[in-house]
Design brief:
Layout lengths: L1 H15 L5 E4 L4 H14 L3 E7 L5 H14 L3 E5 L6 H4 L5 H20 L3 E3 L12 H8 L5 H4 L4 H10 L25 H16 L6 E5 L2 E5 L5 H6 L1 H10 L4 E4 L11 H12 L1
Parallel strand pairs: 1-2, 1-4, 2-3, 6-7
Antiparallel strand pairs: 5-6
Helix pairs in contact: 1-2, 1-8, 2-8, 5-6
């Protein structure tokens, strides 16, 4: 693995050295953090990390992303996006991510065109091609490049390279936008996203690292790794109180454990049946 990591780093260095300036779509996750750090290592001040800010992006994630950019010495900028004002996004269809990424990349393209940044890049890696990624379609349509994908770097290799380069996010759990907590077809609103954010903040404050709060009306379905089940049980009174405080009447722990995939219609049916039982 050490030789693979060294080879991939050299390939990434070569990839970035082809450009004079780079705009990075940066979220604070390990993938985009690696892209940002590698670009900065090669081009220095000719790199700008852009953080898309909207109700679907948790504030704690934004603060962590800013902190990491500062620690790595990378110039950054907050870019306000308004995908939530698009009816196609608010309707929460299965290709919701397409409309979200379209808004983000359109904003970044305006910045790039106005200021003369040569290329826009994101953190898509080689493993992402196995999923139905509507966001990748939006990136392709707007000429956004994906160095990790083009150099054929997997998620495991991303973490290994980030660890080698001492990037703080190397072991950070995967994070998806807050809208992924809502079943497709349930309208997305800033108020709903804020409720989910506050619910997940409550879990973070209790020391959980990897979790999701899935929204089902007045029921919150919590996902944590199975190794955290006992801890969740011990803290159940505090967890329930925290989620009721933000508006949920019912709180349940999903015995299937944590999973990173978005909600589907099957999830909605299973929760309804459990409720009736």
């Amino acid at each position: 693995m050490n030789q693979v990591v060294s080879t991939k780093i050299k390939h990434l260095e070569h990839w970035f050295n082809r450009f004079k300036s780079i705009l990075v779509a940066y979220s604070g996750g390990v993938d985009s953090a690696l892209v940002m750090a590698m670009a900065h290592r090669q081009l220095h001040e000719k790199v700008l990390a852009c953080i898309g800010v909207s109700p679907s992006y948790p504030r704690r994630e934004k603060e962590q992303a800013i902190t990491m950019a500062k620690e790595l010495g990378v110039p950054y900028r907050l870019i306000e996006t308004s995908e939530y004002s698009n009816p196609n996004y608010m309707a929460n269809p299965s290709n919701r991510c397409y409309f979200c990424k379209t808004e983000l990349f359109n904003q970044l393209k305006r910045v790039a065109d106005k200021e003369g940044w040569q290329v826009i890049v994101d953190g898509t890696n080689a493993d992402d091609t196995g999923d139905d990624r509507a966001g990748m379609k939006a990136a392709h349509e707007r000429g956004v490049r994906s160095p990790l994908l083009e150099v054929d770097i997997s998620k495991e290799q991303v973490r290994a390279i980030a660890h080698r380069l001492k990037i703080p996010a190397w072991d950070k759990p995967a994070m998806a936008c807050l809208s992924s907590r809502v079943p497709h077809g349930v309208p997305i609103t800033p108020t709903l996203l804020r409720q989910i954010e506050l619910a997940e903040d409550s879990l973070a404050e209790k020391g959980f690292k990897q979790f999701r709060v899935r929204h089902h009306g007045d029921l919150a379905r919590i996902e944590v790794p199975q190794e955290d089940f006992l801890r969740a049980h011990d803290l159940r009174s505090d967890i329930v109180a925290g989620l009721r405080k933000v508006g949920y009447r019912h709180v349940c722990l999903d015995l299937a454990g944590f999973r990173s995939t978005p909600l589907t219609d099957r999830d909605v049916v299973s929760v309804t049946v459990k409720g009736k039982a």
